Amino acid sequence: GSEEQPIIIKSSGGTANIVATGASYALKFQKSKFFRITGGTSAGQYDIKIDGGHLGISLENLSTNFEVDHVEIFNIGFAGVMAKTDPSCDDATIQGNFTMKDISIHDNYVHDTGGEGFYVGNSLYQHGMQTPCGVRQPHEIHNVKVYNNIVKNSGWEGIQVGSATRGAAVYNNRVENYGLANKKGQNNGMQIGSGTGGLFYNNFIMNGSGNGLIMMGLGDNLVHDNIIVNAGENGIFCDERRSPGPGYQFINNTIINPAQDGIRLYSEEVPVNVIMNNIIVNPGSIGEYRDDERSYIYTLSEDVKIESANNYFTSDIQSVRFVNAASGDYRLTAASPTVNTGSSIQSFDIATDFYHQPRLKGAAYDIGACEF
Fold first, then answer.
1. Contact assessment for residue 89 and residue 54, using Cβ atoms and an 8 Å cutoff
2. Cα–chain-centroid distance for residue 156?
3. How big is the CA angle at 361 (ends 358 and 366), to the nearest 5 degrees?
4. Among candidates 201, 332, 188, which has minimal Cα distance to 259?
5. Cα 51 from chain centroid?
6. pTM of the entire structure?
């Protein structure tokens, strides 16, 4: 196709069912450019359904400039959607010679996968990938958006994005019941992998065996207005995989009942990590450290520099005064101590909260992912 006239692959007059039981792929694209796979136009519409296969949709071998939306993918042996070209001995595949760009993956429903729900970009940006002709660097991704997707019952990560060095945004996604295979290091709700910069916001992550979010980006990542509930390890774990940016920014997130720490930081290389206006409730590590504050924000060493302001820490969820946390409503009531007690976030250009309501409705900003 072309930028002006992309190739459109869609259902015609009903639902297209692709049954790929026992096959390596349900849909595979190679050396393809300027195309769109779409199963509809409205929320909850999936007029393309993919059942079975080792991979649901594979976008590989130098494919770029594509959109995937409104597709339901399920009963997959490994990844629901895989979008990357791994480096090989062919120089066309390596960093500098190929860049995947302008891709959009949105409004899809992926469930019951053996591996990741979405696997976008190579995860070995820092050290490269071993090939028969030596270590080769994976290609970069520019301008990727992953949004409005639902992932349930993934064996490994729900959503993983790597090597997205420019213009990355992961937002408005919902991931539930992740890491069912409980494979250590592959069992997180969402992974912003090595080499990925940009934005991560308005995501809902609940019930899994690993970290709710593992952040290994470029150190320029803004993480705001996410709700993370019942993580099997830490609510957010920020590791370091080549992070040249100014620092990670964790703003107005709500983290509830992580099995270990609320936010765990190993990010020593960046100048400063900003942790502001977060609600952290009942981390499982309370009582393990000399200072219980470390259960809410844990730093690996004194070399991890943090700028912490106006966070709300509690072991009692009732004290937050959510509307109805038991039924998944994490909006605030007027009686919440987090209302009008946050620091100003005007400089971060955050316009709305998790529920898409305008920020700063009262005298001051609120704490957590909801603005009362």
1. no
2. 13
3. 90
4. 188
5. 24
6. 0.97
Residues 49-102 pLDDT 10s: 999 999 999 999 999 999 999 999 999 999 999 999 999 999 999 999 999 999
User: How many Å is the maximal CA-CA distance in the chain?
Assistant: 64
List the one residue out of 134, 147, 138, 263 whose CA is nearest residue 211: 263
DSSP character string of 270-335: SS-EEEES-EEE--TTTTSSSSTHHHHEEESSTTS-EEEES-EEES-GGGG-EEEGGGTEEEEPTT
> Alpha helices of the chain — where are they, by DSSP H?
293-296
Nearest to 157 by CA among 129, 180, 124: 180
- Which stretches within 150-288 are classed as H helix? none
Contact present, 289 and 257 (Cβ < 8 Å): no
At 129 the three-state DSSP class reads strand
Side-chain-side CA neighbours of 128 within 13 Å: the count stands at 14
Q: What are residue 318's phi and psi, to 5 degrees?
A: -65, -25
Residues contacting 179, CB < 8 A, separation 6+: 154, 155, 156, 157, 186, 187, 188, 189, 208, 209, 210, 232
Size of the chain in residues: 372
| Closest to 59 (Cα-Cα) out of 139, 130, 133 | 139
What is the token pair recorded at 272?
């400063």
For position 59, what pLDDT does the model report? 98
- Cβ-contact 279, 254 below 8 angstroms: yes
